[in-house]
Design goal:
Blueprint: E1 10-12, H1 13-20, H2 24-33, E2 39-41, E3 44-48, H3 49-62
Length: about 70
């Protein structure tokens, strides 16, 4: 991550999945492939809502996206 996020901005992939309507396994696979910006701390993947939003925008540009996603 270019700019270090504040600890309060970090989300686990489970939290991000719940907030955006995806499964945590799907987000984990995206993180492992490097398509979703996330860092692994121990056994826990962490991301930010900004990084999830950036991923969603990249999907919309390619025309592959969920039309009904929840956004906090």
């Amino acid at each position: 991550m270019a700019k270090k996020p504040k600890i309060t901005d970090l989300l686990t992939l489970a939290q991000a999945a719940k907030a955006y309507g995806y499964s945590s396994d799907y987000l984990r696979r995206l993180a492992e492939k490097g398509r979703l910006k996330a860092d692994k701390l121990g056994s826990q993947w962490l991301t930010t809502s900004g990084d999830v939003e950036a991923f969603l925008v990249s999907r919309e540009k390619r025309g592959v996206y969920k039309k009904r996603t929840k956004r906090p």
